[in-house]
């Protein structure tokens, strides 16, 4: 894994050796985009947070890795925690923050002790705390805050609500966290992996990072691969890789479909396996779920919808009420009593959910339903309710 | 925006964990004074930075439908009915909660927008239990209006018939039928953010989410103050007042019962709204006729007992001042608080129990009247109090709770048997087939039909204080208040700001009137005293005043403070007609 090749501390040393604007410029030149899945340009997010007026600024690490089928942040936090904290410290240099928070998924509570120990060691080595690395006035520290088990808290504004002690529900945006974030202060929220790549970029340079990937999706990315394949696990692969290439790598050549991007992602049918996994084509936060020839795609769609119904915060109408209607549609398809007119109506409802839901959860909740209806029509129609 | 700015120097709003802070405006955006040029449906308009699309569209006369939005409340942006298309953006945006911060081109009724709104309305209807015929909000339901506006002619995504939740009728004041709830969360924002009481909250997640109380307890078991502000802001029939009209009709129909009704000024100023009048047209005397035709035996004016309350509260204040200033009794609870708003009284009981001694010991006008009717009135009319049924027309849902308080039967009989809200009485009048607006006028019944006029302004916020000040000043100086002020309005106290403060120097004193001669020898102790008074309406404002007192601020130096639980006082009470807004409440004054 690339992270293993980076000399500890080299990124931070590089960041401290240059003015904050140069740190931003270097990230900008690398083309690094958010590794949580949305792909927002990291340098832009940091620059906006840096420009926002505020005495207190926060760097938040989104370690609420809850997307079904992703487990790469768990590996990073377990094996390369120093990289994550170093990346957060670099972000603090870039935006002028003094406070960092790791929002850790409730199910990763077992990692907390390890993370606290790494943080303590960094404090002892003057990599956190006051006058970091001897630089006068550069104070920054990181605390770990536990999530409580809600998927939607991976959405950055819901994460902030949760951090503030509220019910974890997404806020209206704008304003965005870079302007009005944690406790109303300018805040950057980045994925675990994004911070680790920022360290690599500072240590090895933007050109090194850009040597792989595509023009719009530069660099490597970690993929969490699971499902019907021979070699599941975490892979470090260049962005732009086609689905077919990835399947060959993991031993899933006979797949009939691949879910890229988890429950919130897309279900890619075999005929699209030449498409690339990149922000401009099939974006992903890293979750790859392989469906072998024997999988029932209607059950796949049902499973994901049940997940969204369970995890919806319930505040906005399209998500709260829409997903159950789609699930009912799946049950009707299973029984064979969903008319084509009603199926079209449900697809139209799915589009409304994508357009009108308040946050990414509701906007992506119908995508598997829609892609299964679109791509596996023959498989899902004409059923009679059997197994 | 509608969210009130916290008053400088006065302490915090609801605890962070209880606040429904789902929306944040850009920091200080409007104060920055920057204007942005935007286009809405092709019409250009320049608006201050941070203005919502909804506001900007309103200025252009473009109507965007809303459901979770309410003028009085902080923003939620949850129903998504107000979505609009912004050129260049992938997703639709909620017009109510999208602050304009850059030049944008907005389209309010594209096919995407219309389809999304239609779907959203269809979805809300799909899980909204109930038939409009049998709903108390049949004529005033915002969901029904939206369905009509968007031409809903069938249930596209079905329509549940089977109730999911038990109706919570545990409270004397508010009945909650969550089967009709559309989860707009206006009630939550009313309770947490407008009133800062914090009884209601969103529970559970997804399609199991519901509005509920702490541990989902019945409303009667939690710290609800019965103000009913949530009822006024509910767009559907999910919240309503606990309605005793059947019992009132039964009493009217029973020939042995002598049924008496008192009417308070605020419902008289608002009931016309239930009959198609614009807010602000009082129909006091037509109402008297309507009540007699409904079958009430006597119709009385609550102003009479409001005067009694004022005298009791005024004399009680003078007695507390005497004990403090003459007897040097440091234990006297000052400032004295008014006690006529039962929502406020319950608020103090739950949130500031250490301040109970500050509450005036006087009963509210409603209860005083009831006590008089069951005792003095019964006696002079040779009636058995057990045959007397007392009904009170109030703008208030908390009055229903108040009349059922166990201590409110000092005479051995329940002072007030039934409290009716403005809405409920309007329903009775409709049911009796009476055309209120076409009725001849008639006066109140004697012997209680003579009031001074102090009581008439009782319903406006600051009204109690104004009446009490007049009484106190007249008692102490022997002068009519007109000589102290240019006219009878005590200007610094009336008005619609949330918290007010006034000082009234007593520069001359007169003889002690006979009425109170047994209590006071002279007024010397008040010579050159400056009376300091405060007024707060809405429990959020009351809370600020209470915190100021706790911190030893200006209000801790007051002698008398009027508190009303509802924003705008009784005129904005929880029993008043829906809808409510700052403009409607001001028109009723």
Ordered list of secondary-structure elements with their pairings:
The complex is a heterodimer of chains A (387) and B (589).
Chain A: H1 10-16, H2 20-30, H3 42-51, E1 58-63, H4 72-79, H5 81-95, E2 99-104, H6 112-124, E3 141-146, H7 156-163, E4 187-191, H8 192-204, H9 206-210, E5 220-227, E6 233-238, H10 243-250, E7 257-260, E8 266-269, E9 287-291, H11 297-311, H12 317-335, H13 340-356, H14 360-364, H15 367-375, H16 377-380
Parallel strand pairs in A: 1-2, 1-4, 2-3, 5-9
Antiparallel strand pairs in A: 5-6, 7-8, 7-9
Chain B: E1 35-40, E2 43-48, H1 53-59, E3 83-86, E4 93-94, E5 105-107, H2 111-126, H3 142-149, E6 174-176, H4 186-194, E7 201-203, E8 210-212, H5 229-233, E9 239-241, H6 245-253, E10 258-263, H7 265-270, H8 284-294, E11 298-301, H9 302-325, E12 336-337, H10 342-351, H11 365-380, E13 388-394, H12 398-403, E14 418-421, H13 422-431, H14 463-477, E15 499-505, E16 530-537, H15 539-550, E17 560-564, H16 582-588
Parallel strand pairs in B: 1-5, 10-11, 10-13, 12-17, 13-14, 16-17
Antiparallel strand pairs in B: 1-2, 3-4, 3-5, 6-9, 7-8, 15-16
Helix pairs in contact in B: 9-11, 9-14
Helices and strands of chain A, in order, run as HHHEHHEHEHEHHEEHEEEHHHHHH
- Give the radius of gyration of chain A: 21 Å
Biggest sheet of chain A, strands in spatial order? 6-5-9-7-8
- Number of helical segments of chain B? 16
Largest sheet of chain B: 5 strands, mixed
Going by CATH, the architecture of the domain at 326-361 and 460-572 in chain B would be 3-Layer(aba) Sandwich
* Mean pLDDT across all amino acids of chain A: 95
* Coarse morphology of chain B: globular
**Which CATH architecture of the largest domain in chain A is right?**
3-Layer(aba) Sandwich
* Low-pLDDT residue spans of chain A: none
Question: What's the shape of chain A?
Answer: globular
Helix content of chain B: 25-40%
Overall CATH class of the largest domain in chain A: Alpha Beta
- Which residue ranges of chain B are poorly predicted, with pLDDT under 50 across at least 5 consecutive positions? 1-31, 483-491
């Amino acid at each position: 894994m690339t992270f293993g090749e980076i000399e500890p501390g080299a990124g931070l040393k590089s960041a401290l050796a240059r003015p904050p604007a140069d740190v931003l410029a270097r990230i900008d030149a690398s083309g690094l985009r958010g590794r949580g899945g949305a792909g927002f340009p990291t340098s832009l997010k940091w620059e906006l947070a840096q420009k926002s007026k505020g005495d207190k600024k926060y760097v938040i690490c989104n370690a609420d890795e809850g997307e079904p089928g992703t487990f790469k942040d768990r590996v990073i936090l377990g094996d390369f925690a120093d990289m994550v904290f170093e990346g957060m410290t670099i972000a603090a240099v870039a935006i002028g923050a003094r406070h960092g928070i790791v929002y850790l998924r409730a199910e990763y509570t077992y990692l907390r002790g390890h993370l606290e120990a790494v943080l303590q060691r960094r404090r002892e080595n003057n990599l956190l705390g006051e006058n970091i690395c001897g630089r006068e006035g550069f104070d920054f520290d990181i605390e770990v805050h536990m999530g409580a088990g809600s998927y939607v808290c991976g959405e950055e504004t819901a994460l902030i609500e949760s951090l503030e002690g509220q019910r974890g529900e997404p806020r209206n945006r704008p304003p965005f966290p870079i302007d009005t974030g944690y406790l109303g202060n300018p805040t950057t929220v980045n994925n675990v992996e994004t911070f680790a790549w920022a360290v690599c970029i500072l240590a090895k340079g933007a050109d090194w990072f850009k040597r792989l990937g595509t023009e719009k999706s530069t660099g490597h990315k970690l993929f969490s691969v699971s499902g019907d394949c021979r070699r599941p696990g975490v892979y470090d692969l260049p962005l732009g890789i086609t689905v077919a290439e990835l399947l060959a790598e993991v031993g899933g050549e006979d797949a009939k479909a691949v879910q890229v991007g988890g429950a919130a992602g897309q279900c890619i049918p075999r005929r699209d396996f030449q498409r690339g996994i990149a922000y401009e084509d099939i974006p992903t936060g890293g979750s790859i779920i392989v469906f072998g020839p024997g999988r029932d795609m209607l059950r796949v769609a049902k499973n994901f919808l049940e997940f969204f119904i369970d995890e919806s915060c319930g505040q906005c109408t399209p998500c709260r009420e829409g997903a159950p209607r789609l699930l009912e549609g799946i049950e009707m398809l299973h029984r064979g009593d969903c008319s084509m007119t009603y199926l079209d109506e449900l697809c139209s409802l799915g589009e409304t959910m994508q357009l009108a839901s308040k946050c990414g959860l509701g906007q992506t909740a119908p995508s598997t339903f829609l892609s299964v209806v679109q791509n596996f029509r023959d498989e899902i129609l004409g059923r009679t309710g059997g197994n | 925006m509608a969210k009130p700015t916290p008053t400088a120097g006065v302490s915090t709003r609801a605890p962070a964990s209880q606040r429904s802070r789902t929306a944040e405006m850009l920091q200080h955006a409007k104060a920055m004074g920057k204007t942005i040029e935007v286009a809405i449906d092709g019409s250009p308009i320049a608006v201050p930075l941070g203005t919502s699309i909804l506001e900007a569209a309103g200025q252009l006369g473009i109507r965007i439908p809303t459901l979770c939005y309410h003028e009085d409340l902080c923003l939620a942006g949850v129903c998504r009915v107000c979505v609009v298309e912004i050129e260049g953006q992938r997703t639709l945006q909620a017009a109510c909660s999208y602050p304009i911060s850059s030049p944008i081109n907005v389209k309010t009724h594209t096919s995407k927008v219309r389809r999304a709104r239609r779907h959203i309305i269809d979805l809300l209807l799909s899980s909204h239990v109930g038939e409009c015929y049998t709903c108390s909000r049949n004529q005033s339901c915002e969901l029904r209006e939206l369905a009509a506006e968007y031409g809903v002619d069938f249930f596209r995504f079905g329509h549940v018939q089977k109730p999911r939740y038990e109706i919570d009728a545990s409270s004397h004041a508010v009945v909650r039928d969550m089967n009709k709830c559309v989860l707009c969360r206006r009630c939550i924002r009313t309770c947490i953010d407008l009133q800062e009481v914090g009884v209601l909250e969103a529970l559970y997640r997804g399609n199991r989410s519901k509005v509920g109380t702490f541990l989902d307890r019945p409303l009667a078991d939690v710290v609800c103050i019965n103000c009913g502000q949530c009822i006024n802001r509910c767009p559907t029939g999910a919240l309503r007042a606990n309605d005793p009209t059947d019992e009132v009709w039964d009493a009217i129909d029973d020939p042995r019962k002598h049924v008496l009704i008192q009417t308070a000024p605020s419902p008289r100023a608002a009931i016309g709204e239930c009959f198609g009048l614009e807010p602000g047209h009082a129909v006091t005397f037509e109402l008297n006729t309507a009540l007699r035709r409904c079958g009430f035996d006597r119709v009385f004016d609550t102003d009479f007992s409001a005067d009694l309350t004022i005298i009791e509260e005024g004399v009680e204040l003078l007695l507390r001042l005497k004990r403090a200033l003459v007897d040097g009794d440091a234990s006297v609870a000052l400032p004295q608080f008014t006690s006529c708003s039962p929502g406020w009284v319950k608020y103090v009981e739950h949130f500031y129990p250490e301040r109970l001694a500050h509450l005036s010991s006087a009963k509210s006008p409603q209860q005083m009247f009831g006590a008089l009717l069951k005792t003095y009135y019964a006696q002079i009319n040779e009636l058995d109090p057990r045959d007397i049924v007392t009904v009170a027309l109030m703008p208030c849902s908390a009055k229903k709770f108040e009349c059922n308080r166990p201590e409110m039967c000092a005479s051995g009989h329940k002072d007030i048997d039934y409290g009716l809200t403005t809405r409920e009485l309007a329903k009775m009048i409709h049911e009796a087939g009476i055309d209120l607006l076409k009725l001849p006028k008639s006066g109140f019944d004697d012997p209680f039909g003579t009031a001074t006029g102090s009581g008439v302004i009782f319903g406006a916020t600051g009204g109690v204080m104004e009446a009490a000040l007049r009484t106190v000043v007249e008692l102490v100086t022997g002068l009519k208040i007109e000589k102290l002020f240019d006219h009878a309005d005590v200007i610094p106290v009336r008005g619609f700001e949330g918290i007010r403060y006034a000082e009234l120097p007593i520069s001359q004193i007169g003889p002690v009137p006979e009425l109170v001669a047994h209590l006071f020898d002279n007024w010397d102790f008040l010579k050159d005293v400056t009376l300091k008074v405060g007024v707060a309406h809405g429990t959020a404002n009351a809370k600020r005043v209470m915190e100021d007192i706790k911190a030893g601020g200006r209000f801790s130096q007051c002698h008398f403070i009027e508190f009303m639980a509802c924003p705008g006082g009784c005129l904005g009470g929880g029993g008043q007609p829906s809808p409510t807004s700052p403009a409607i409440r001001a028109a009723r004054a």
